Amino acid sequence: MNPVADRSDNAHGLVTAAKRIAGERAWRIVLLNIVLCTVFIAIGLIFSGDPNKMFGEGKPGTLLSVLMLGLSSFASFKRATGPLPRPIRLGWATFSVSLALAALDDMFKLHEALDVVINEWLGFDPDGIATKLDDFLVMLYAVPALLVMLWVWRSYAFQTPGLVLRFGIAGVFFAGMVILDLIGRPQTAEETCKVLAGSFIFAGVVGAPRTEQPHPRP
Question: Residue ranges per domain, the chain?
Fold first, then answer.
């Protein structure tokens, strides 16, 4: 018997179990948010005939999106301050800051105010093509995530089960949100995509380990 190897195997088993439990909880939150969005839409239809009634600044649907982004930022911060290798912690720190800014933006609509300022500064017609500038500003939030995934993490992202998949699904919903806003489709669909993007980001973050996973013996 090799006590050191046995301890390594035990540690590996505990980490694997912890990741599985975290992943299961994250998926439950995704499902819960799908149910909540459905309930918000139903309430709007039943009581006012407007499915968008529960979505918008300061309303439950948007606050749910803010909550998911805030929780994702906090979970990323926990990993950024953990015992992971420095490049990985740098990636999580970048994620944490980006998600915190996105949460504040979603809460206070900062990109819309910035849109007005930039249009005035550049002399663009605020009712012309420049009305879509705020969508471009929103897309900028995805840039740090792409840089982290493609450069800072490189191998780490693909060695972490489910991380790429969940962030990929979040990216699809994020793109759907931007496209729906660009083409002026129902706010309900756009806001639901936003909530689900935040939900899958959260699922990806909490499913990733906060410590470097021990390698099992061959």
Answer: 3-206
